[in-house]
Every structure is written in C-alpha cells, then in structure tokens.
Amino acid sequence: MTTFQSLIKTLAFIAVTLAAGLPAAAESFLAKLMPDVEVGELVEGADAFGATHPDIPAVEVLSGGERIGWAFVTSDLVSTTGYSGKPIHTMVAVDDAAQVIGVELVRHSEPIVLIGIPDSKVKALVADYRGLDLVAEAESGGTAHQLDIISGATVTIMVIDDSIVRAGLKVARQLGLGGLAVEETGTGPQFEFDTDAEAAPDWMTLEGDGTLRRLSLDVGQVNAAFEAMDDPRAAERALTEAPETTFIEMQAALVSHPAIAEVLLGTSPAQNLNDWLEEGDHAIAIVGRGLYSFKGSGYVRGGIFDRIVLIQDDVSVRFRDRMHKRINTIAADGAPVFNEADLFKIPADSGFDPAKPFRIQLLVQREVGAIEKVFTTFDLGYQLPEKYLRSVAPPPPADVPTSVDEVTSQSETDAHQALWKRIWAGKTVEIAVLATMLTVLTGVFFFQTFATRNERSFFWFRIGFLTVTLVYLGWYANAQLSVVNLMALFGSLVSGFSWQAFLLDPLTFILWFSVAAALLFWGRGAYCGWLCPFGALQELLNRIAKALHIPQWTLPWGLHERLWPLKYMIFLGLFGVSLTSIEQAERLAEVEPFKTAIILNFVRAWPFVAYAAALLIAGLFVERFFCRYLCPLGAALAIPARMRMFDWLKRYHECGNPCQTCANECPVQSIHPTGEINPNECINCLHCQVLYQSETTCPVVIKKMKRRAKVGAAPDLSRDISGHPNQTKTQTAT
C-alpha cells in the first residue's frame, strides 16, 4: 500500500505540475458576470457600474455619477462550492457603512432547480440579505442575522449565506467600510501546541479543565426557541416529550493535539489519526446523544454534514464525507455512552487557528408541513486550554516583495497544489480500486483469447465486474461520466483552458484519461461496456429479467439501424445549445438519467424518477435500450471510435455468410447481418469472442472439431496391428 500511495502522490504531483505550467485565466468572476447583471436590479436607484478597484475584485456602484457602494462576486473572494462541486456565484453590493444594499444570485450549477424548488424562490431568499450589517457580523463572528433556509436546499443556502458574510467582511475590511480594517497577523503573541503537555485520563476531569466542551439542550429549551420564531407553525409542531428530556448533549474536543487524542481515542487510533492528517491539518472529535443527531442523513446523499459547521472569526469549515471518520471506542475513563462519535478533519488551507476560540454551530430543524421545515441554530463554544499551548516568537517581518502580483500568484499556485494533493491523497482507496479495475480490464482486453476461453467463468467474471462498477464506482464513489463533462471541457477550451476544475475529482479525471486512451485501442466499448455505472445497472437488471423468463424483444434490423442516429442527434443538439448557454445545455442533459439513478440514488422529484424507471423497464425487454438509442455520451464517444488503431475482435471468413450466430446473440445488435462489427455500437462485451472459441455453439469450431476427429479416427495403413511397419506395403512402395 505504501508503494501505491507513492504512486498516487507522484500522479498528483505530475497533475499539479501540469496545472501550474498552464496559464490560468486572469479574468475575475466579477468581470465575466458583470455584463449579466442589471445594476438597477442589484441596487435600487443605481444606474451604472463604475471603475474596478485596482487591488481587489470590486467595482463601484454609481447613481447619477456618484459612488453609492461597491459590488463584488463572492466566488472571487471565498470558496462557494455547493452540492454540484461548482461555485455558486452571488453578486453583493455594500455601502460605505458596511451595509449590504444589494444581492443577486447570478449563476449556479446546483441541482435545486431540478428537485422541485423554483429558482425564483432561492433568488428571492438571497435578495432578502439587503440590509445585512457587516459590522455587526464582524462583532458576532457571522451570527448576528437570522439564517433562513429552504427545505430541500439546506446546504446550498448555507453555502450562499456563508459566502455572503465572509466575502462581505473581506471587502469591507480591505476598503475600510464601516470602520472595519484588515486584521494584522503576526504582530501579537503566537502559540503552538505544547507536545509535552499531558491530558487527564478521565472524562470528568477533561470536562472540568475545558479539554471537553459541552452543549446541552433539553426539549423545553428547543420548544422555546422555535416558539420565539416568527413562523407560528413552528410552535404548533412542538415536541411532545417531557420538557426535561435530553434533546441533544453534544461534546467536542480538539484531538489534533496528540495528548488529547491519545486520552480520548487510545494509542493506536491516535496514531491512525496522525497518519490521516496532512501537515497543517487539525481534527475535532464530536460526540452526541439524545433525540437529535448532529450528523443527520444529508451527508449520505450529498456528501456534506449540513447540521454542523465550525466557525472561527471569518473562517467557516463545512465538513464533507471525505473529512470524516467514525470513532469506534472512547478510551477515556468514565466516558458516558454516546449514540454517535465522530472525527472531522479541519483542512490546513481553511485558515483555522487552534489557539483561538471557535464554535461548532448546530442547525436544528423542525417539520412544519409535508415538505417544509424551519430552522434555528445553537452554538457550542470551544477554547483550547492554555496548558496545551506554548508561546513562540513572532516571525521576523518579511522583506517587501518587488512584485505583489508575483507573490500573490505564487501563493495561489501553492494553494492550488496543496488542494490537489490533499484531494488526491484523500481519495487513495477509491483511486486504488479504480486503478485495479482498469488494470484488470486492460489485461482482459490484451489477453482476451485466454480470458474468454471458458464461457461460464467469463460470464461470472463480467457479472462481478459490472456489479463493482455499479455499486462501488457508481453509487459509492459517484464516478459516473456524463456528456456534461464534455461540454464543460469544450467550454474550458474556448474560454481559456485550465486543469484546475478537472483535477478536483480524481476519479473523473482518471476515467476520462483512460477513456481517451481506450478510444485509440478499443473504441468506446471499454467505457460503455464495462465502466459505465448506468450501463452496468441496465445489463444486470436485464440478466435478472432473463432469469425470470421475461420475454426479450429483438428489433428488426431495419428499425434497429434507423434508431441508432437518435443518440447522435441528441448529442449534437446538446452540443449546439452549449455553444450559446452551458447552463441550458446542462438542464437539457437531464435526458441522461445518470444523476437520478446513480448520483442521487433515485432521491429526486417523481418526474425524474419516473423517466429513469421507464428507461430501466424498457431495458428489461430490450437489453441496454438507453445505450443503444438515446445515450448522448455514447454518441460522443462513438464519433472518434473509428480512429482506433487495432482491430482486436477475431472473426471467421464464414461469419455473416452463412453463419449468423454472433449477429443473433450480440446483446446490442452491433454485428451486421453480413458479419461486420460496427465499432460505433460495439460495447466490447466480448461475447462474440466467447462464441468464437465455443465448441458447442460456433458452427465453424464444431466443423473443425469434427474434421479433426475424423482425421484422428482414420486407420494408419502403414503399420500392422502390432504397430510395426507393414513390410509388404513398404517394399511395394520402394
């Protein structure tokens, strides 16, 4: 495993080196999106945008030629990544008093519009941030306002809220709005972990000295909090348990300090934690019990723990599934029994300072309707006790750089490299599984004669491989390629190519690299036939249908051949739309049921589920119905399929004339009645290669076997019955 980890790090280094060597687009999101925004709709009374600030991506907002505020796009200043993995671009305007005077959701790729939540509802909620006082937010650590959340879009709204506050504070401090100023770092006392410090061995003492901090809420307190809200429905749905019943008891400790980790987790788990954390990372342990879970179940669907967030001044850290590990056993003496105990990683590039106070904000929800919820928050404050810290001398003042732009660019490059390395290292297991799958599949293709020699063994090998593709690669790792990826790639090539967006997802990056290589060797079948999770789902369901004796429909060749072009027309239509609007093309790309069936596990609005189910039901009767006739990704990969350099699939002269065995048994009817294999439609399932060697099915092989048996059974007249040479025949011959 160490060797493999080294390989992963090497690949990541190569990738980030390539990324660093390519020119990144210098244009800010503000410059790109400003033409899409009507200044009068952003800020009431405004009539124009003015000059852009020379130091930060902010532009003047003018009214009658006078500046009334500054506008900026949050994604230029802070991370705004939501469920989709892409930035949520929100334009915000603030005045000289650090009051928000305008907010507009400009562009996003979130799936909220596609799950029954109108985009207008989200935009209306965002617009309500007008009047937000950033000075009050700076004093309260970002919690001076009431957070309104739309049920079903919890994470999206929380990301938008977080980005508006943090980006607004950055701009206000940089421009000195409302009396705010940039916080100077490195001028006061600085602290680091004291590795010689020891932690108490028992739970009670750890609570007493502040190593553990607690948030305790009973049912009465939670009911009172919801009663104080403006929405009367919250009070009407009060919890019915006794007021003193524990709603949640949540405790936290900073376990990146080695002494705390060893006491709470034990020696071996503490070492595992240390191995898990990269340089500069920190970790917090959170345990809880009671009626309410601090984890919830949202992370299972979307990968984000939407009920907790770490907040420290302007820094906020949202925890994703890759930043999480479960705690199996609490080692401290006298520890209570908890319902859940978990570790959460705090990334090095988050700006978190373990020596400063921070808080864990808990989001509590209450259903007030069939699909509606209201929310409120509670805070668990934490300050690492002084005994775990020691003071260090502040670093000497840095020399004034000759070029600020050069230093900034270099720091951004370093940050990007650190991000890629951390993401790739965090996906080590997934990358290992994918690399193993690719290695095995490559071996099968190169040695296909040997692999397909035993029909039964190869059948179960393929079923097993497709099961891993569906369950692990699809439902677990969400590594489902899409035509949207190709449209994004083309858009990137047109607007200024950068590796950054593509390296964010290692599995997708590796898969596309492998698909590109496979197109040159085997065509589209390497992916479509073996590595596509939705294709695997279709084939496995069809196998079940066959086992249940559900009738299989073989379309007449003429009709089948005329249905082929449908997927090419769909792809070309999507590609044409993407040239004018990538967002509209992404919506139309819902013709692919991948998001519904693989990414969201059918947890969507009923029309999308019904559409995906209809395609799967059709596939019960016509194997891989969607792949054959409707898949735009398959069409996109089929177009360059004829560029492949090798023709690996063996054929006999008799194939097609007169033998039709392979053509009749091909799962996707990619073999023409005349015997030729259409590389645009072939999925490389290798069934024809199994038949090519079959001694019970292939007429050519059967005929050869009979001929050999006949030759072997013929008497040898040159020898007598005892096996000695026949003298008479020999002499005559002589």
From the N-terminal CA to the C-terminal CA, the straight-line distance is: 72 Å
Oligomer: single chain
Number of extended strands: 16
| Range of strand content | 5-15%
Strand sequence of the main sheet, in spatial order? 1-2-3-4-5
Structural class: alpha+beta
Rg: 32 Å
Largest sheet: 5 strands, antiparallel
Uncertain stretches: 7-26, 112-116, 400-413, 727-734
* Helix count from the secondary structure assignment: 32
Arithmetic mean pLDDT: 81
What is the 3D form?
globular
Helical fraction: 40-55%
What does this structure look like?
The protein has 734 residues and is of the alpha+beta class. The protein is built from 32 helices and 16 strands. The strands form 4 sheets. Strands 1-2-3-4-5 form a 5-stranded antiparallel beta sheet. Strands 7-8-9-13-12 form a 5-stranded antiparallel beta sheet. A 4-stranded antiparallel beta sheet has the order 11-10-14-15, with no helix packed on it. A hairpin with a 2-residue loop joins strand 10 and strand 11 (315-317). Helix 21 packs across helix 26. The longest helix is centred in the middle third of the chain and has 23 residues, at 404-426. The protein is globular.
Summary of the model, kept short:
The chain is 45% helix and 14% strand. It is an alpha+beta fold and 734 residues long.
